[in-house]
Amino acid sequence: MLYLGVDLGGTNIKAALVNSEGEILCEANPPTNLPRPAEAVCDDIAALCLQLAEEKDVAGVGVGCPGTVDGGTVLYSNNLDWHDFAMEEYLAQKTGLPVAVGNDANVAALGEAWKGAAAGAQNIIMITLGTGVGGGIIINGKILAGSHGAGGEIGHALVVRGEEEKCNCGNHGCLEQYASATGIVRVAGRVLAASEDDSTLRELQNITAKDVLDAFKAGDAVAVRIMEYVGDLLGGAIAGFTTVVDPEAIVIGGGVSKAGQPLIDCIEKYYQRYAFSSCKETPIVLATLGNDAGIYGAAKMVL
Ligand code: ZN
């Protein structure tokens, strides 16, 4: 039996035909062409699915979608500018196939638990460190979507009390405000302003997260201080989540994770300090599927 996995992004619609062993048989990657109404984008997705499926026996379509997804309905997507769109129902009607829609970060976690860094694991936590901080929790091989579609919204866990700047979600002190690419830049600004210590970062006009991570890996003392602060918050937050999930592995993905093992070591150091004794051995690993995690996870949703 074959399955269609679709990863809907703000720039591209990534779709693939996958078999039950998780091998990609064919794929396509057309532009999303935003801004467009949800129906127009879904008409393209449906046409793409039928084209990839040809006359083959396809069991269903899984879709990862940015935003809050509850019961197959996209309640809100900032990236797509969609509100209350019954995507599952619409796509099922257009394709004549069973459809499952999930939040993209949750779906990516399912992909990593199936074919990626935690292949074969039944229980994992995945944290995606990108422009924001996304998360996905897999329990007994299934996505924990929660009762409002907010399951796995790890980026909005409170990690700093008394923060004055506001998070995108409206709260103050969320993990995303420190551990996302934009968060790392914000922390960098604060740490640089708090001392006059020499740093290669002071020579730069507009500091990016990559600049901070490169300087951190080169041993720049101020960059090390910035990343120790971020690692402390991440390690502490992950230690807290593991007391709820007790996962087999914690997977770190997203653009920031391109910093590689030095980033993992920095998180691990603080994780060890804060983790509950039974969870101390739980490995923290880098995601391995990159941009393909979404199509694998989407296909797995209908498998
Ligand atoms: Zn927040």
Walk me through the topology.
Layout: E1 2-8, E2 13-19, E3 24-28, H1 38-53, E4 58-65, E5 68-70, E6 73-77, E7 82-85, H2 87-95, E8 99-103, H3 104-115, E9 124-129, E10 133-139, E11 142-143, H4 176-179, H5 181-193, H6 209-217, H7 221-245, E12 249-253, H8 261-274, E13 284-286, H9 293-302
Helix pairs in contact: 1-2, 3-9, 5-7, 6-7, 7-8
The structure holds zinc ion.
Tags for this entry?
22% strand, 303 residues, five-stranded mixed beta sheet, alpha/beta, binds zinc ion, 9 helices
Describe the fold and architecture.
This protein has 303 residues and is an alpha/beta fold. The chain is built from 9 helices and 13 strands. It has helices at 38-53, 87-95, 104-115, 176-179, 181-193, 209-217, 221-245, 261-274, 293-302; strands at residues 2-8, 13-19, 24-28, 58-65, 68-70, 73-77, 82-85, 99-103, 124-129, 133-139, 142-143, 249-253, 284-286. A 5-stranded mixed β-sheet has the order 3-2-1-4-8. A 5-stranded mixed β-sheet has the order 11-10-9-12-13, with helices on both faces. It has a 3-stranded antiparallel β-sheet with strand order 5-6-7, covered by helices on one side. A hairpin with a 4-residue loop joins strand 1 (2-8) and strand 2. The radius of gyration is 20 Å and the shape is globular. The N and C termini lie close together (9 Å). The structure holds zinc ion. The site of zinc ion has 6 residues, from loops.
